TrEMBL record:
Entry's transmembrane regions: 6-30, 42-62, 68-89
UniProt keyword list: Membrane, Transmembrane, Transmembrane helix
Domain of life: Bacteria
The name this protein goes by in its record: Uncharacterized protein
Length: 117
């Protein structure tokens, strides 16, 4: 195994993790944003993630593997999220002291970050 490749991968993963965390920094300074700004922030973040998904994941997947593999990947991803949602369903998840909708949010965010990384 090439140790240099492993170290480069570890370094890149660490930078990615730190960059992801930087996105939360402004909320430490403005913890009580009005719904006006929260909604716009969610809309902006959704647009960024949607465009990143389409232009950096879906289009390259179709170019490299063809439409069939691209569509299969999209279908598998969609099924995964449907199963995840039905599995959580009406359950009242608990993570440490975090319960309910907040725990669902934690599961969603950590799961997304895990799959994304």
């Amino acid at each position: 195994m090439d140790i240099q490749l492993i170290l480069i991968t570890l370094f890149a993963a660490t930078l990615t993790m730190l960059a992801t965390g930087l996105g939360a920094v402004p909320f430490f300074f403005f913890p009580n944003l009005s719904s006006h700004w929260s909604e716009r922030g969610y809309a902006f973040a959704s647009g960024v993630m949607l465009s990143a998904s389409v232009f950096d994941l879906i289009f390259p997947a179709i170019q490299r593997g063809g439409y069939t593999q691209g569509v299969i990947g999209l279908v598998i991803g969609t099924i995964f999220f449907i199963i995840s949602e039905s599995w959580l369903g009406d359950r009242e998840p608990k993570i440490g002291d975090i319960r309910g909708a907040s725990a669902r949010r934690v599961i969603l965010i950590l799961g997304t970050l895990f799959i994304h990384s």
